[in-house]
């Protein structure tokens, strides 16, 4: 079996390879599939992410973000990655940061690292779906991103500094509305930064 041709064909419809699915589709034992993909990984065609999941680098328009809701169903991109996406922070994290109501974990391979931090089910809201060529993934709204970041920082004992964040494209009324749904410590942490920004005439922002 020509595995390079096979994964190139698979790349037409998905950037993700699952050993169990390939075994069923091509009527091959799962250990043989794993061995074949391991050989392809050494050649740089695929990347092992977890026990049964590989990322297919032959997928022309794929992104590691395609993995976000494969590795964790109830999860969305937030925290540092989303702050950078929206231009709220200029920091460029090497890790794709997510929150989940499921078990927290970190998936690390040669070039891909996806971190899932735990959030309460009552705070699992404020996100939207982005469509890719191969599927979709969830990402927090700008306002929810900020609040997730504050909430988890406070929970870990480190109240994050907000003075380096750019609130230009943040919908301030929505941020305050969302903050009321968090603990009082989160609301009290974000309020001074918004009051200060409004006092100096910063734009209210419309979000996206």
Describe the structure.
This protein has 208 residues and is an alpha+beta fold. The protein has 8 helices and 9 strands. The strands form 3 sheets. A 4-stranded mixed beta sheet has the order 4-5-7-6. The chain has a 3-stranded antiparallel beta sheet with strand order 1-3-2. A two-stranded antiparallel ribbon has the order 8-9. Helix 2 crosses helix 3 (30-42), helix 6 (142-155) crosses helix 7 and helix 6 crosses helix 8. The relative contact order is 0.12.
Which value, in Å, is the CA radius of gyration? 20 Å
Compute the number of strand runs. Answer: 9
Number of domains: 2
Order of helices and strands: HEHHEEHEHEEEEEHHH
Mean pLDDT: 91
Q: What ranges have pLDDT less than 50 throughout 5 or more consecutive residues?
A: 198-208
Biggest sheet architecture: 4 strands, mixed
The level of helicity is 25-40%
Strand order of the largest sheet: 4-5-7-6
Q: Percent of residues in beta strands?
A: 15-25%
**Helix/sheet category:** alpha+beta
SS summary, helix count: 8
Dominant shape: elongated
Q: First CA to last CA: what distance?
A: 47 Å
What attributes does this structure have?
208 residues, alpha+beta, Arc Repressor Mutant, subunit A, 4-stranded mixed β-sheet, 3-stranded antiparallel β-sheet, 8 helices, 9 strands, 38% helix, 19% strand, disordered C terminus
């Amino acid at each position: 079996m020509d595995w390079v041709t096979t994964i190139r064909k698979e790349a037409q419809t998905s950037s993700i390879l699952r050993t169990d699915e390939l075994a069923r589709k091509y009527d091959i034992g799962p250990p043989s599939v794993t061995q074949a993909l391991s050989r392809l990984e050494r050649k740089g065609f695929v990347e092992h992410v977890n026990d049964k999941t590989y990322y297919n680098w032959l997928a022309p328009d794929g992104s590691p973000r395609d993995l976000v809701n494969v590795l964790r169903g109830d999860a969305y991109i937030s925290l540092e990655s989303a702050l950078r996406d929206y231009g709220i922070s200029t920091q460029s994290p090497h890790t794709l940061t997510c929150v989940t109501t499921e078990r927290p974990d970190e998936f690390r391979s040669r070039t891909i690292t996806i971190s899932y931090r735990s959030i309460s089910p009552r705070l699992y809201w404020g996100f939207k779906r982005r469509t890719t060529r191969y599927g979709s993934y969830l990402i927090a709204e700008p306002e929810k991103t900020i609040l997730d970041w504050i909430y988890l920082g406070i929970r870990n004992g480190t109240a994050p500094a907000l003075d380096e964040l750019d609130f230009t494209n943040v919908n301030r009324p929505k941020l305050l509305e969302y903050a009321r749904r968090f603990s009082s410590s989160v609301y009290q942490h974000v309020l001074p930064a918004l009051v200060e920004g409004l006092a100096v005439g910063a734009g209210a922002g419309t979000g996206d």
